[in-house]
Amino acid sequence: MLDVPIWLWVAFAVTVIVALAVDLLAHREAHVIGFKEAAAWSGVWVGLALVFGAVVFLVLGSTPGVEYTTAWLLEKSLSVDNLFVFALIFAYFKVPRAYQHRVLFFGVMGALVFRGVFLAAGVAVVSRFTAVLFAFAAVLFYSTYKILKEEEDSFDPGTSIAVRLLRKVVPVRDEYAGMKFFVKEAGKRVATPLLAVVAAIEAADLIFAVDSVPAVLAVSDDAFIVYTSNAFAILGLRALYFLLAGLLDRFHYLSKGLALILSFIGLKLILQASHKLFSSSIPEIPSPISLAVIVAVLAVAVVMSMRRPLPTAPEGTAARRGDASSGPAEEPPSQKARETDDPPQDG
Question: Between these two residues, 151 and 18, which has the higher pLDDT value?
Fold first, then answer.
């Protein structure tokens, strides 16, 4: 484990808290996130991640710096699949575009907590039982198989465990009430569909953590490196969604690139475990090579997607992945009309 000074942990926490506070204040009023605004916020989050990476280089050394950068880029690339699911969830619940940033904000807050728990558990397990790396490699190879065979797990937002549990704990009304999560009806506190959407987002992140956590643990088994890199990648998800909404299907080779990256990381895990358990003569894949492979694969996938675009789908046909490419859901006319009436009492 790295000898990370306390002030660096504090600096990370302060950076995240201040950035989230500024983000929340900037979006305290419901509005549709346009391309320019999304691009600006994407630049902010990427800039923060890179600046923090530079600090890691200077304070902890080149090896931790490369590991942080590799883990951040790996998590950033794997999170692209999350964007498809975000679009699916928003379309299913017919979330007005102006409310989508608020949903993703609280979804990211929950993801930071849950990923912290999962990563801490993963680091603890790996440090005690190196053989578990073989199981992690098997998970990544299976994910690769599903991607290449296009057998990805279907995700039904309405029947996810989180949404079903929410409906058992508190009644959920059918209509939105602005950006409120709770309102009072007939003297009783009830949830709005917006809270159900947050629950669905959290459930989706738990599913994607199955791939993400083993992958990042192949890069580093240090708690500081894996959590900070994951946190900065997750923080930029909202802006990335609004930046790429409606354009995701154009990068159709990206899924194949992600499959290649997952299989490469699986191989890295096997070599890493074999080096520790069987013989030190078995080579490990250095982090600089891992970083170079990830960058090269992503670059090739993006360039090939742009040079060989998919044929335009006939009008009226369903988009791939449950209408994910259609962009964020528009606000239904009936919903707009309802919001002009007297809103329910605040909960």
Answer: 18
